[in-house]
Write a structure and sequence with these properties.
single chain; binds cytidine-5'-diphosphate; about 230 residues; alpha+beta; globular
C-alpha cells in the first residue's frame, strides 16, 4: 500500500490516509488466547471488513456515531482518525466466556439489564478488569466518560440485539473500543464475529470465534463467518 503504516495489531493494519482519516486493512489472521493461538484463514479479512462495515452503517442509520466513513477496497475501511483509548468495553446479555470463570455465575444466565465491563488492552497481563478508579488513575477515561460509554454500549445493544434476533440469532455479548475526536467519544475498531458471541436461536449453534477458540477446523470457522454475513445482509 502506498500509504504510511501507522501501526499493526493481531488482525488489522492501520495506514495514514489523510490528515483526518486512516485506512484499516483487515488481515486474514485469526488469533485466540491473547495471541497464543494463531492461524491464517484466507477470506476472513474481507468477511470481517464487510461485516464491520455493514454493522457500523446500521448503527449510523440509528444515530449512533462510529468512526466508519466508507470502504477503500473490499478488505480496507476508511475511518475517522481517533485517539484510541486502550480499553475493551464488553456488554453481556447472557453469561459465557471469562465472566463464568471469574464470578459465581452459570453459563447461560441472563443479565437484564446487561452487564458492562471494562478491560485494559494488555495481552501480557491477559486484559485485566478495570473499574472507574483504575481508569481515572491511568488517565484512560474519567468517570463521566465511562458513564457515557456505558450509555452508548446500551444503545448499541438496543440496535444489534433485535436486529440479530430478527435473523434467528442471539447476541450473547460484544466488545467495542472507543476513541476521542474533538472531545467526543466515538466507536472505533471493528464489530465482527471476532468481537461478538452469536448463537443460532433455535439450535444454540455457535457462529462466532468461540468455534476457533474451542478447536474447530478452519473450514468450519470460515463457513460460520460466511453464513453469518449472508444471514445479516440478506
Ligand atoms: O473471550 P474471553 O472469554 O477471553 O473474554 P470475554 O470477556 O468473555 O469476552 C466477552 C466478549 O468480548 C466476547 O464477545 C469476545 O469475543 C470479546 N472479546 C474481544 O473481542 N477481544 C478480547 N480481547 C476479549 C474479548
Amino acid at each position: 500500500m502506498e500509504f504510511t503504516k501507522l501501526g499493526e495489531g493481531k488482525t488489522k493494519e492501520v495506514y495514514n490516509y489523510d490528515s483526518s482519516h486512516v485506512l484499516l486493512k483487515f488481515k486474514d489472521s485469526i488469533t485466540a488466547g491473547d495471541g497464543a493461538k494463531k492461524d491464517e484463514l484466507p477470506g476472513k479479512g474481507v468477511l470481517n471488513a464487510q461485516t464491520s462495515a455493514f454493522l457500523f452503517r446500521l448503527l449510523e442509520s440509528k444515530g449512533i456515531e462510529t468512526h466508519y466513513v466508507g470502504m477503500y477496497d473490499e478488505r480496507t475501511m476508511i475511518a475517522k482518525k481517533l485517539k484510541m483509548i486502550p480499553v475493551e468495553v464488553v456488554l453481556r446479555n447472557i453469561a459465557t466466556g471469562s465472566i463464568v470463570k471469574r464470578l459465581p455465575v452459570k453459563e447461560g444466565e441472563v443479565f437484564d439489564p446487561p452487564i458492562i465491563e471494562f478491560f485494559l488492552k494488555d495481552d501480557a497481563r491477559h486484559d485485566p478488569l478495570l473499574n472507574y478508579c483504575h481508569m481515572e488513575y491511568f488517565k484512560l477515561m474519567t468517570r463521566k466518560e465511562a458513564e457515557t460509554v456505558e450509555e452508548v454500549m446500551l444503545k448499541v445493544n438496543q440496535v444489534l440485539y433485535p436486529f440479530f434476533k430478527s435473523k434467528g440469532l442471539i447476541l450473547y455479548d460484544f466488545k467495542l473500543e472507543f476513541g476521542r475526536l474533538d472531545g467526543k467519544l466515538i466507536i472505533g475498531d471493528e464489530i465482527s464475529l471476532d468481537s461478538m458471541r452469536i448463537r443460532e436461536e433455535k439450535t444454540g449453534r455457535i457462529l462466532d470465534k468461540d468455534l476457533y477458540r474451542k478447536g474447530a477446523d478452519l473450514q468450519t470457522v470460515k463457513n460460520a463467518y460466511e453464513e453469518f454475513f449472508r444471514r445479516i445482509s440478506e
